[in-house]
Design goal:
Layout (H helix, E strand, L loop, with lengths): L2 H7 L4 E5 L12 E6 L4 H10 L10 H7 L3 H8 E5 L7 H9 L2 E4 L10 H19 L7 E5 L32 H22 L4 H19 L4 H16 L5 E6 L4 H8 L5 E3 L5 E2 L4 H15 L5 E6 L7 E2 H14 L7 E3 L2 H27 L14 H21 L4
Parallel strand pairs: 1-2, 1-4, 2-3, 4-5, 5-6, 6-9, 7-11
Antiparallel strand pairs: 8-10
Helix pairs in contact: 1-11, 6-9, 7-8, 8-9, 10-14, 12-14
Enzyme class: oxidoreductase
Catalytic activity: a long-chain fatty acyl-CoA + 2 NADPH + 2 H(+) = a long-chain primary fatty alcohol + 2 NADP(+) + CoA
Function: Catalyzes the reduction of fatty acyl-CoA to fatty alcohols.
């Protein structure tokens, strides 16, 4: 699709964005409402505009160069931060519903080992709430929902169609997912934990946190999903479909990012990893996801349909595992931080290392301490153009470290 046509689709539009700032730098947009985590609008405004948490990022360098001293005035005119806890029936929601042309729902809890109740609230119920609000927006021409490429695959192999997920559908054909039953299960487990802690006269916070994390992983595995993130994202798609009616919806399902591994290596929390150097990883750069989403929205703007797009690289240009290993080590060799990451290609070796390096010392420590004290280019998303070695070394790793180290130092 022609880049001018894509850009033109967003000209003079009012857009509500949850969980993403990738659209903020696009010219011609009339107004952006940015939903952020904050107790009220004043705190949201302070977080986005005053503390530079959003507009101070490298993403806005071009706009800063274009507008110079007028940059902040331009941003304040275009961007309105909104507190995350907006209510569907509040006066603010009513005002938004009369102005919004496009909703981009990118908010999600992405932790693979998150508490089940927290992941359900954000990834499942949060998605349904966004869709319910979208139905109140009289001018709405597009709801873009950012999901994940793994909502239907589970651990299946082979060629799989890009279908809409149906209510109750799971990767295991003999299992039916009842979301209401899952919500009730969470409530019952939390009530039991609270009662138990009261009887034992102990704090329930840590016990509940551990139990909720284990419950989420167990329930995900029970239905065929590998973790609570993709499990609850799948629920979100089901709930969105159940309340959609005739809303125009585009679902974008990107594959994985590899930020966590790089950050973990940088912070010395991931000294080893299990994997096959000859294998491949289905990764995709974030800007390609944004470009694909914008093209998809422009292509289907105003259509009363639902359509799914996967944004992945594995079929055309997968990231080889050895490139990730070599690029990460090569970058840190020039910018020294650590010794080389250990890579095991067989699980028994990995397990033995973990036992010797961590489990046994921790058990000894626990015993002693216990005894002591208790478009072509503009909107490009073609993965064939990615030179993974150059991309990882010159772009991805430096960018990930800049953001993660900035957050750790309190600068972002």
């Amino acid at each position: 699709m022609d880049a001018a046509k894509v850009a033109g689709c967003f000209r003079d539009r009012t857009i509500l964005i949850t969980g993403s700032t990738g659209f903020l730098g696009k010219s011609g947009v009339k107004k952006l409402y940015l939903l952020v985590r904050a107790p009220d609008d004043a705190a949201a405004h302070n977080r986005v505009l005053q503390l530079q948490e959003v507009v101070g990022q490298e993403l806005f360098r071009t706009l800063r160069e274009i507008h110079g001293d007028g940059f902040h005035s331009f941003i304040q005119e275009k961007v309105s931060p909104v507190a995350r806890d907006i209510r569907l029936h509040s006066s603010q929601a009513k005002q938004l519903s009369e102005e919004i042309d496009i909703i981009v729902n990118g908010a999600a809890i992405t932790n693979f080992y998150e508490r089940y109740d927290v992941a359900l609230a954000s990834n499942a119920l949060g998605t349904m709430n966004v869709c319910q609000f979208a139905k109140q927006c009289a001018r709405l021409k597009m709801l873009l929902h950012v999901s994940t490429a793994y909502v239907l695959t589970g651990e299946q192999e082979g060629l799989l169609p890009e279908n809409l997920i149906q209510m109750g559908e799971t990767p295991k054909p003999d299992r039916y997912l009842d979301i209401e039953a899952e919500l009730e299960l969470v409530s019952e487990v939390k009530a039991t934990l609270t009662a138990h802690s009261a009887a034992e006269d102990t704090s329930s916070q840590q016990l509940e946190k551990k139990a909720m994390k284990e419950l989420g992983l167990n329930r995900a595995n029970n239905f065929g999903w590998p973790n609570v993130y993709v499990f609850t994202k799948a629920m979100g798609e089901m709930l969105r479909g159940s309340v959609r009616e005739d809303l125009p919806v585009v679902i974008v399902r990107p594959s994985m990012t590899i930020d966590a591994l790089i950050v973990g290596y940088d912070e010395q929390t991931v000294p080893c990893f299990i994997g096959d150097r000859s294998g491949a990883i289905d990764a995709i750069p974030g800007d390609m996801v944004v470009n694909a989403a914008m093209v998809a929205m422009a292509a289907h703007y105003g259509e009363k349909t639902q359509i799914v797009y996967h944004v992945t690289s594995a079929h055309q240009n997968p990231l080889q595992c050895y490139l990730l290993e070599e690029s990460t080590y090569g970058y840190f060799f020039i910018n020294p931080r650590h010794k080389k990451l250990l890579l095991f290609n067989r699980y028994p070796y990995f397990h033995a290392y973990m036992v010797l390096a961590y489990k046994t010392p921790l058990q000894l420590w626990g015993t002693t301490t216990g005894a002591a004290q208790g478009d072509g280019y503009t909107f490009n998303f073609d993965p064939n153009c990615i030179n993974w070695r150059l991309y990882l070394f010159n772009v991805h790793i430096p960018a990930v470290l800049k953001i993660s180290r900035g957050k750790k130092d309190g600068r972002a």
